[in-house]
Amino acid sequence: MLNFLFWNVNGRSTDQLLTALLSERQIDILILAEVPVSDSELLLKINSGGGLVFQPTLDISSRVRTFVRFPRHLVIPIRDAPGVSIRHIEPPGRVPILVVAVHLPSKLYRDDREQAIGATRLSRMIVEAEEKVGHSRTLVIGDFNMNPFEHGVVCADCFHAVMDRRIARQGSRIVNGEERKFFYNPMWSFLGDISSGPPGTYFYNAGGQYNLFWNVFDQVLLRPALLEQFSDKNLQVVTQIGEASLLTDSGRPNAAVGSDHLPIFVSLTG
Amino acid sequence: MSTESLWGDLSHLEEVKTPALHLKEQAAILTQSTSGLLVGDVHQEAQGDQISAELDVVVPALGDYRLNVVRVLYPLSIYPLDIQDVTNYEWQKCPDEQAFVAQLRAILSSPKIRKTIATLLAQSKI
Lengths: 270, 126
Fold this sequence. Notes:
The complex is a heterodimer.
Chain A: E1 2-8, H1 15-25, E2 29-33, H2 39-46, E3 55-56, E4 64-68, E5 75-81, E6 84-89, E7 97-103, H3 112-133, E8 138-143, H4 151-154, E9 161-162, H5 165-168, E10 172-175, E11 178-181, E12 183-184, E13 202-204, E14 213-215, E15 218-222, E16 230-237, E17 240-241, E18 244-245, E19 264-268
Parallel strand pairs in A: 1-2, 7-8, 9-12
Antiparallel strand pairs in A: 1-19, 2-4, 3-4, 5-6, 6-7, 8-15, 10-11, 13-14, 16-19, 17-18
Chain B: H1 19-33, E1 39-47, E2 50-59, E3 65-74, E4 81-85, E5 91-94, H2 97-108, H3 111-124
Antiparallel strand pairs in B: 1-2, 2-3, 3-4, 4-5
């Protein structure tokens, strides 16, 4: 198993919870957004419990940071841009994968159209990175600041992420004469209160006419080449760490305990 | 009867230096100053009704690892433009060329970028 955890900690110090979560879920690849401390400070804390030892990778953007539990030489930096960190990771005994960690611009600063333009640009970066490493075993994980149904996630020129893995398995489709590769986006299944977890990963009461209340901004996307290693039960929105609940009594993310975002956990088999 | 130009003298137009050209100059300086251990690379593309120009540092010794250090978004009229600093993720608005150059200088000579350049350079010399 190769275990991933993403958490937007919202600038909060969550070291104890995080350390417990890393141990509980045996995390191999940790991706964090909005960490309030330096890599070295964080590593001192999360490595102090013994057991897991995380290494930083070469990120200079404070928006998103990647830490791994294997020797650093197994992580090849491919590209960094604001809010984007692309790494080629060669986990011991496994085929390499391309990991794209993202923390995309907030809706507070960019409108939907600008978010979609940014997603188009990032989509091209991912394709370039896949061409460079020679495969498309690609996992994208992070805070997209967009829901799975928004243009920037769905459009063929953007992430082209679909809700049905049978469609994703087709690999690609031709749109306006150009080939566009699919991602599978399992996070569609986490929308609403009939889903297996909470109704989303981030709650925001925007007021006004159009108010979703719950959002699934925190997502993981998989290229078809990784689908054989993915199983539904290995993707969870984390609401509990040990005895601590990350939710309030009304079932919303409890920022006083953890963060206003809930962590997402995904595991690849094989 | 010869056709009269109503354009005035087109051979003496004011020279306009685009933000992309500014970035290309800085890219060339980085490449030259580091003897090619770090390579400055600028790419430009249309994004909606704007032009996006980005300055990346490419590290040949690290398999052409690419780090974006500055991104500029500008309309056809060029100014006012938006410039992004990768280290703090913030966008600044520059009303004119002078403000743009000042902001570009502030980003490229910032302690975080200098430290990153030094780190990448050190790793390139191994």
